[in-house]
Amino acid sequence: MTIHHLSDAELAGQPAAYWTGVAYESLIAFTRARQAELGFTQPQYWLLRNLSKNDLSPDGQGMTLTELQQAMRSYLRPEDDLAAESELLLERGWLTRDAEKRLWITEAGERARADLKRHAPAIRDRIHQGISDTDYVTALKVLRQMIQNTGGAMA
Asked: Please, which residues have CB within 8 angstroms of residue 52's CB and are 6 or more apart in sequence?
């Protein structure tokens, strides 16, 4: 399917599941490509975020890979290998591992997380280029209503 030259009536008849799937894959690919250009992967960033007391970690305590996978279950992709990604972060000195195999963010890792976070607004701005906040909010409201209509769960 293409969206070129479709009337509003034709667009209204398009399957939402198809377009949300295409959008999801495109947005993930774009985001991951931008992050790769900056020298990191999305799973590496998530690991740092989930271990940082200044971000997603409620207490800054270390976590095992199993605990991290559980914490990230709603956004990990099948190809994401947290074990391999954490090894790379250990090699960079951004994480350490204790005797109980819990991963901990280091000071260098915290600085890297903060630096990586600075790039998120530029990536978001590129994705949202040409889309007003009003249109974006409307799109999200429509998607949320579709989720509700189909009995899906919203976070």
From this structure: 60, 105, 109, 110, 113
Distances (CA, A) of 95 to 82, 117, 152: 13, 17, 36
How far is the C-alpha of 106 from the C-alpha of 104, rounded, in Å?
6
pLDDT digits over 59-99, tens only?
Answer: 989 999 999 999 999 999 999 999 999 999 999 999 999 99
Token pair for 52: 């940082």
pLDDT 10s digits, 28-55: 999 999 999 999 999 999 999 999 999 9
Q: Classify residue 51 by burial, with Cβ atoms within 10 Å: 0-12, 13-18, 19+.
A: buried
Residue 63 DSSP SS3: strand
45 contacts 116 by C-beta, under 8 angstroms: yes
> 74 with 80: CB under 8 angstroms?
no
Amino acid (one-letter) located at 82:
L
Beta bridge partners of 96: 104
Give pTM, 2 decimals: 0.84
Residues facing 103 on adjacent strands: 63, 97
Give the closest residue to 129 by CA, choosing from 2, 15, 27. Answer: 27
